[in-house]
Amino acid sequence: MEELLRPLLRDVPDFPRPGILFKDITPLLAHPIARQAVVKAIAANFKDQSIDAVAGVEARGFIFGSLIAQELALPFIPIRKAGKLPYKKITEHYQLEYAEAAIEMHTDAITPGMRVLVHDDLLATGGTASAAGNLIQQLGGIVAGYSFVINLSFLPGQSVLQSRFHVNPHYLIHF
Questions:
Q1: Which one of 9, 61, 97, 139 counts the least CB within 10 Å of its CB?
Q2: How many helices (DSSP H) and strands (DSSP E) are in the chain?
Q3: pTM for this entry
Q4: E-assigned strands of the chain?
């Protein structure tokens, strides 16, 4: 998988601000065979884990998250940036490595006891992923797992999620 993915991930220096090296998945999205391989690899890792739904974090987490949900024949739950959802919602504020942010989820997206897989494209500090997990738990759901295309293993995201949610994040490639 690493041989397939590495050439399809583009480094963009100084985005979204100076000093940040952004990992762009756009070339991966343009490659149908690699895109399908990513979906199948992540879905295969979770197919026997009693997952009830897949939640994807806006924006890039929507892309693969919805495809993973489709592959597993499960509901997809959008977790959006603040101010984007039209119905009753809950909000979680959190710190990014370079800014402060907030995400939201509809209050009827999860029923108590529901086991949810959270997907995003990249794991860095764990801030966004932890915020998504907090939203799920606030509604009585269980964070059954985390999946990522990329893990920036030089940052603490993996250990943050392991200690906070007691799950080992699954990822396909790390830097």
A1: 97
A2: 6, 9
A3: 0.96
A4: 10-13, 21-24, 53-57, 76-81, 89-95, 100-106, 115-123, 142-151, 170-174
CA distance 79 to 107: 11
Does the structure show a pLDDT above 80 at 103? yes
Q: Which 3 state secondary structure label does DSSP give 56?
A: strand
Structural domains of the chain ordered from first start:
49-174 (3.40.50.2020)
User: How does strand 89-95 pair with strand 115-123?
Assistant: unpaired
Q: Taking 70 as the threshold, does the pLDDT of residue 97 lie above it?
A: no
For residue 124, give both structure tokens. Answer: 């860095």
Each residue of 117-137: pLDDT tens digit? 999 999 999 999 999 999 999
Contacts for 5-11: CB closer than 8 Å, 24+ residues apart: 5/34, 5/38, 5/149, 5/172, 5/173, 6/173, 8/34, 9/150, 9/173
Here the tokens at position 164 are 């906070």
